Amino acid sequence: MSSPLRPLPIWADVALIPLINVAAAFVISGFVVLAIGENPLEAVQILITGALGDLEGIGFTLYYATSFIFTGLAVAICFHAGLFNIGVEGQAYVAGLGAALAALHLGFLPGYSLVIVAIIGAALFGAAFAFIPGYLQAKRDSHIVITTIMFNYIASALMGYLLVNVLREPSQMNPETPTFSVYGQVPQFHELLTPLGIHWPVTPFNLSFLLALAAAFAVWVVIWRTRLGYEIRTVGANATAAVYGGISPARVTIVTTLLSGALAGGMAVNVILGEEHRLILEYTAGFGFVGIAVALMGRAHPVGIILAAILFGILYQGGAELAFEKPKISRDMIVVIQGLVVLFAGALEHMFRRPVAVLLARRTTSPPI
Amino acid sequence: MSILYGFYEADSGEIRINGEPVRIRSSREAISHGIGMVHQHFMLVPPLSVLENVMLGAEGGPLLAEGAGLIRKRLAELGREYGLEVNPNAIVGELSVGLQQRVEILKALVRGADILVLDEPTAVLTPAEADQLFEMLRVLKGERKTIIFITHKLREIMSLTDRVSVMRRGEMVATFDTDKTSPPELADAMVGRKVILKIDKGPAHPGRIALEARNLVVRDDRGVVRVDGVSFILREGEILGVAGVAGNGQSELLEALAGMRPPSAGEILVDGELLTHVQSNPRAERLIGIGHVPEDRHRVGLIMPFEACESAMLGFHQERVYGRGMLFDRRAIIADAQSKMKAFDVRPPSPLLKTANFSGGNQQKIVLAREIERNPKILLVGQPTRGVDIGAIEFIHKRIVAQRDAGKALLLVSVELDEIFALSDRIIVLCAGRITGERRPEDTNAQDLGLLMAGVSERAA
Prior knowledge:
The complex is a heterodimer of chains A (369) and B (461). Chain A has 369 residues and is mainly α. Chain A has helices spanning 10-36, 40-52, 55-80, 88-105, 113-140, 144-167, 189-193, 208-225, 227-237, 239-244, 249-276, 287-297, 302-325, 332-347, 353-364. Chain A has one domain (17-353): ABC transporter involved in vitamin B12 uptake, BtuC (Orthogonal Bundle). Helix content of chain A is 72%, strand content 0%. Chain B has 461 residues and is an alpha/beta fold. Among the domains of chain B are: 15-150, 3-Layer(aba) Sandwich (Rossmann fold); 209-306 and 375-453, P-loop containing nucleotide triphosphate hydrolases (Rossmann fold). Chain B has helices spanning 27-32, 50-55, 64-82, 97-110, 127-142, 154-160, 183-191, 250-257, 282-287, 297-301, 308-311, 330-343, 360-372, 390-405, 417-423, 446-453; strands at 15-17, 20-22, 35-38, 115-119, 146-150, 163-168, 171-177, 209-219, 225-235, 238-243, 265-270, 273-274, 290-293, 378-382, 409-413, 426-431, 434-439. Chain A binds chain B through residues 221, 225-228, 230-231, 233-234, 237-238, 240-241, 243-247, and chain B through 258, 260, 281-284, 286, 292, 294, 299-306, 310, 314-315, 317-318, 322-323, 326-328, 330.
């Protein structure tokens, strides 16, 4: 009945299908907006203008995108090993602690070496927090989906305790650390560009963006050009073949979750070191979970993740503007779109595959007579 | 048998029960036609009681009590009638395997089965339990039940059945009345007499002992002993064939020798030296010169979604030729795959093509090229030509013999007797995890091996 179709050309696989998935998510969201009693086209216009209409909007969009690149990469690298790391949220949160502790207590370090050490601190803490579920998965067969979900709660409780009882300055009411010194901060673009005579509005957009791009490139190199990446992909594709090939799936599982946690730490660099300049309560705000959507939509490929992260950056920034302009549409609308993207890009990934393949086959081969 | 029980539907042909053509699309329909199935791997829910298991699918309404009472009564009746007593409140997971099988049979009988299908029922039983089962089946036969008994053990066929049909590669090749046939005749029919592929092969010149197994015991993932005290030696410059019906421990033996499955007892010696615990893994064994062509290239030997060149270095990806340090040298990987593909005539010779897109024969050539080109001293080969076209079979056989002539020690596991005959210099036969005999191909024939494969142990000399 269903004759196997030739595989899709690569451009359709990496660009067309994700685009159709996103479009489907938007169309359905449009109906939701319509049901609320607003004009979806106007909503889209406000959203796009808010996110990309001026430099300020773009700054915020890219600032959000930076976090999404990191969390998306963290989820994606685990995908390649066949692991579903739901714990990026918690890992990023704990990574914030590493960044803050270094930035606050290692002030003796000369100049900007402090912030570099703080970045390493974030990566280490994120990796350490991911290690436990990774180890349990590798050695005890405790499913990483379950353990990482639970570890998100542990992170939340732990950080709440530390911020309220340990890290907070006694004179302060807010559960947050003191502000880091200048050398413990990742410079923001407006600080760098204004002295050069280039106008850039004040936005949280900071140098972490470049770090995120570098991380995306590094992930690509690791996954496709190193022995470790080969082992990760082999374990993910066929664990039995991995064992046959002398690869230890347990070791690969642990190493991959460590890398994933370290990447999650990149979000702490962007938000804690790059914008807040202090550790605050629940700073991750669900960005770790959005990373799952980003990784799914980007098909676990760094280039796809960068594009998906920018799309979600647009949604977040534009969504805030939209909620401001149209009080009837709350920010939750973004969560709806996000959920639909996960649904179409993840759960229903193959729904549009077959129609597209049929359509392409019809176009490229002459019809039988 | 799965068709008969409604797991699959037949593409063509029909099923008749008592002369009436019927259509069976689900196990529910099979049951309603009076067919009961006892699977080789029991379809029981271990944490539930016997009663609950028997009831499953026949609860008789949303409230359990009523149905349970009925079934409890039925169970007691059946127990008396056929001597099939089981405590209905016992937890199935705590029962012995023999009793679990009895529950399976009761399940079928409670549903009013007149036709009972048993798939390799003795595979999991001790001899005493098997005898009990036979007693039970004779009683059922006396009660005018029809019993279909699937087995490859000739002893069971001869002692239990009235009529026997031989199935080979999906075809009924012969049917006999049991009392008018003999084990040799059945073995003949089982093995078949196909034209044996001839291959030019000079006499072997066996040298030093390369590999030795001593009293190996290997368990499968579920802890069942699959290799039960196997010992053999393998010399340089010879091909030792391991024959047997599929599922008699060959796979586990091969995996244990290749370091993929630690043996639970016994020793493996390579060049006279004991393989230590540390060496007993695929990577270490490759380093000491043991190549392994696994039985299942899809599941084990290759990574289907990977580029061919990536599959062609599986197991050797740590080697310096593929790049120094962490980074791979893509050019070296592709060049290496190209030379392997050329040497083994893999078509198309495209290292960047996805592994899954090659034909079965070409995939197998990739595996062979990978293992042979690394020049191992010992080569373990499992089902080298399964799902491979005729042309590739000849090619692969020639390469295997060439390895022998180059002084390598080869162990060949195959369920194809033709292949065993065509390639082996010595043959050992496995049945139920034990070696039932050793032969030289020139001193034996398919019938003789068939008897050994079916567990009829050594005839008195």
